[in-house]
Design a protein that fits this description.
The structure is a single chain. By secondary structure, the protein is an alpha+beta fold. The chain contains 4 helices and 4 strands, in the order H-E-H-E-H-E-E-H. The protein has a 4-stranded mixed sheet. The protein is elongated and about 70 Å long. Residues about 45-55 and about 150-158 have low confidence and may be disordered.
């Protein structure tokens, strides 16, 4: 009987430790996301194009990755391409090599790769996605900004 009580006690302590770890992790990620969303806006350089008079995209997506990130190349890049195809002219994707851009990585509290940060026309972060962000989620975030700016009516998702 004593052995059963000891085992149940150990199980309770381990369960409590796991719950506390999960809570601490979620709290940390939430604080990091809030810090990124409350960060000062940045001005992105205009990419050179054939038409210098072309209007600037009203929404930008910073796509943080690295050369050795398989998920970035195999999953995130195709999702970003689908967003560009679906909202051409309204969205710009800026690839950011996280190891080469420590200031920008810290500015947006990048915790993992890939990370995508959706910026409005003023350069203010409006959404942060840690890990892979599917095209559907990115389109929803972009469409919410486009609707608020009145730049374009939402289009059907892919």
């Amino acid at each position: 009987m004593l052995a059963v009580v000891i085992r149940l006690g150990i199980l309770a302590v381990v369960s409590l430790a796991v719950l506390l770890s999960v809570w601490a992790g979620k709290t940390y990620v939430g604080r990091s996301r809030r810090r990124a969303l409350n960060s000062a806006p940045i001005v992105l350089p205009q990419a050179p194009s054939a038409d210098a008079d072309a209007p600037r995209s009203s929404v930008s997506i910073l796509a943080f990755s690295s050369a050795d990130c398989r998920q970035c190349k195999q999953l995130q890049e195709p999702a970003l391409q689908r967003v560009l195809q679906a909202r051409s002219g309204s969205v710009a994707v800026v690839e950011v090599d996280a190891p080469s851009s420590p200031d920008l990585t810290e500015h947006y509290s990048v915790l993992t790769l890939p990370t995508t940060v959706v910026l409005d026309a003023s350069g203010k972060a409006r959404a942060v996605n840690y890990g892979f962000a599917p095209a559907q989620r990115l389109l929803e975030q972009v469409d919410a900004l486009l609707q608020n700016s009145g730049a374009q009516e939402p289009q059907p998702a892919l």
